[in-house]
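Regression test attached.
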Amino acid sequence: MLKIDHVTMQFGGLTAIDDVSFEVNDGTIFGLIGPNGAGKTTMFNIVSGVYKPVNGKIYLQDQDITGLKPYQICSKGIARTYQNINLFRTLTVLQNVQIGCHKNLKSNLWTNLIRTPAQRREEKELVEECMKLLEFVGLSEKADYMSTNLAYGEQRHLEIARALASRPKLLLLDEPAAGMNTTEKKELAELIRKINDMGITILLVEHDMKLVMNVTGEISVLDFGRKIAQGTPDEIQANPEVIEAYLGGGVNGN
Amino acid sequence: MKFIKKIKPEIWGILFLCLVFLLISKNVYYITLFVFCGIYIIAVSGLDVLFGYSGQISLGHAMFYATGAYTSSLLALQGVPVWIGIFAGIAVSILLAAVVAIPASKLVHQFLALLTIAVGNMVYVFLSKAKVTGAMTGVKNIPDLSIFGIMLDTKLKFGIFMLVMIVLFLFIKSRIINSSTGRALMAIREDVVAADGIGINVRKYKILAFIISAVFTSFAGSMYAHFVGYVSPDGFTGTQSILLLTMLLFGGAGNMVGPICGAVVITIMNETLQGFSTYKTLIYGIVILLAILFMPRGVFGLVQDIIRKIKSSFGRPVKKNAEN
Amino acid sequence: MVLSLIISALVIGSVYGLIALGYSLIYSASGLMTFCQGELLMFGAFIGLTFYRYLAWPFWIALLVSMLIMFILGMLIERLLIRTILSKHAQTIYVVLATIALGIVLKNAAQHLWGTTAVQFPTIFGVDFINVMGTNVQPEAFVCIFLSIVVMVVIHLFMNKMKFGTSMRAAAMNPLAARSVGINVGLTTGVTWGLSASLAGLAGILLGPVQGVSIMMSTTIGTKAFAAAVVGGYGNMYGAILGGVIIGFVETFGAAYVTSSYKDFITYGILALFMIFMPRGILKGDVYES
């Protein structure tokens, strides 16, 4: 599904990502972990088009998507959530999800002005689809709430629903469990598995080790911008270099 | 015509009252006031699409007001039917909007504001110096507008026409904002990064917002020209741009009612303060400061907040949905 | 003829430079743009005029006291207006709008205090013109250019060599870190705004003898000084000065040789072009592009 091919990223003199390569297979849940500052979110930003790598290529289903703009990458089928929740704050829960589906809509300014039968049908179906997604993440009761009035955990769910609305092939989750308690994390793990069951490939950045080990099938570990290990959860847990990186570097994980 | 059924009875009521008001007004002054309110309602609603909905600031919007007014006036004096001139004015405004919007889509708020001021001033200098626009004297004896053969030569006829146009433009705005286009604009306003990431072509929509708002303001400008019969650069200075923004901020941006409220209140205030022309700009300045400090969502937002507080004090669960 | 043009260019260029310096200081200190520098220039000029002409104080005392008053005004603006808006977590654009509104209020206040007619700022040296290399030049022009240079050097030294100046730069780069090492960020931000207002006032007083003092000065000069700031690199102190000189020359020579009625058009056009093609200016200011 996704191939990261010898990607390097520099900001001024600082090398944030140093010749990293890995592959995410179709339909899997892939974890990207590493101590703070290892470059995980930078990697996400490269995949989603926010940054263009200095070197290397990104392939989505064998198509080169390196350097494309974020909205173009989204239209290719990648959606993401953000570390700091980037919801559309003064809009309602439903509107947030509706916007998520924007790229799939066929209507444009003119059909919106004239309200052709096709446009009206599309809007109606859109609401139905979005309500289904809200139900999927457990927010259907709160569809008309302003998004900032949701609880923190619910906001994260909303962000996920919004990303799902774009009908992605690959979903990037950037620290979705941050700030959640144990129960919420269990629900999140369930949700991630349900999304995966729908056939969506997932790339997960997360600090909570329990969650990562539980949910992912394969993990890649970054440290100081370099990949230091890749393997199944069990292999990674036993890997001495990984342990060293976490104990020697920043302290995190639960 | 399904949409006619959808218009709420309250709105029909208001429209009916306006019509009656126009017909029974013995003093044309009130009709004139009405027309001016209408002109600003349209202009400010346009600015709202740009600022309230897509979050882009324009401090030079009078330039579109001007291109609409001058283009249709000058063409009309050459014998072009006025309604064609109005469309021509809109076309020129769209062109100008594109020229500004394309670079503007890359700029962050404050620099965008600066660009709009710069271009707005350029337009003003051109209008006040160029021979073709009559320099500081402006354009006089602008012909009346005639629609379907009816010449709008009395203030009453123009007033009724204006009423229809207000409804039309508000209708257009409502259609735009309650659709995928409107949602895309609001997404850009709320979080550009997330909007980009979720598949919205931010650049395209930013430019679109500019163009839509230019169309509205340009039409309003043409209306001004053909109603008053005379335009001069004085009416298109930076102060005019600030006036538009004052109306928007005062009334409340990002919804249907705010701009109407702001336009009407400030137009009336403007007229009643004619005697205090030296204090006029001072009052604009103070109104903006008050609005920013105490009513960031304008009068409309304030009213909404009050209603919400009343509702919640009665124990009704308040869903706090965003009103658009 | 060319000599008098050069001198005019330098005079207006240094005025633009001083205002642009104010813009850049505030921007690099707080990431905010202020749109009332022009009005502060005018206000300062009137205050200076009041002391010098109406109260017959010696010029230098009038100048220094005016600058002090403007400094306090600037700090008050920051504390009462800017901080209030920022504390409401409003978008930064509201600060822009507030400064515009404030500019309007200042202009109107000046109108009521001093009237709308342009007033002559009396000569400082008692002679109207001195003869330099065959052309008649006002000695005040040299005062303007000279003082501007002095002020710019002083600011450069202050920001780079003195402790408070370094604190200001630190607070600008990273307020949180600055606070944690004991820098009073509120104070440094306040000083920045005060300093900018002071510079604007100085510019007004320097321009006074050369161009007279009127409320008309305010908005146009303020907007044109933006051109200076952007051309040089918005947020960059030296860019402000460079930009000021460039705009001063382009405007003066453009008016003399190309077209005098469209003079403003040229300046605004340059501002627009730079914003479109080179928003970071010549010295690459930190423009936070999206």
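Expected vs. actual: identical. The interface with chain B takes residues 48-50, 69-71, 74-75, 79-80, 82, 86-92, 95, 98-100, 102-103, 105, 107-109, 112-113, 115, 119, 123, 144-146, 149, 162-163, 166 of chain A (CB under 8 Å).
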